[in-house]
Amino acid sequence: MTDETPRLYLITPPLADAAAFAPQLEAAMDAGDVASVLLRFATPDPAARKKIVRALAACVQSRGAALLVDGDAQLAIRADADGAHLRGLGEPFDDGLERLKPERIAGAGGLRTRDDAMTAGEDGVDYVMFGEPEPDGETAPLAETIERLDWWSQIFEVPCIGYAPAVADIDALCAAGADFVALGEAVWSDARGPAAAVAEAQGRLKARPAP
Description:
about 20% strand; globular
């Protein structure tokens, strides 16, 4: 981890339509230093997914953030997104990485073991993520995410992202060496609204103890 303040990485809920979500995304983007937004989809339809990406691209990219799509390198290219988040290793990961690099961002998640994370890093991904939600919504125990971040940040140069199930978890992730902190439901389901959640998250990032 560098001496720089970690930045935010927002993960959207699974989306079937962009119009209803756009105001929430705009509010969140304007409330903190958001580096990237990962779009997740509730529809398998390629045309609908492409429409969602195109509809939300300006909101993200005009604010200087990277727009990433979940698990679909081909969609990232066709819809002019900045990259994709690839889950796990294997043939789909290898194919996605080949399609994306070097023009676009290729991130790696779903890394179940240390060996998986090291392989992804050696293959040239732009970041590794620990603790992210599984497709069924389950997340890894926070202690496991902290352990992986601490290990990775001390050895490797590839940036690491830690997923925070709650905004309050940001403190522990930063202490463990996260370069970026990912937030999902903690933002979108906050009763105060997404802007308040992101503003609190940004405050915690700025107030983190010096390394």
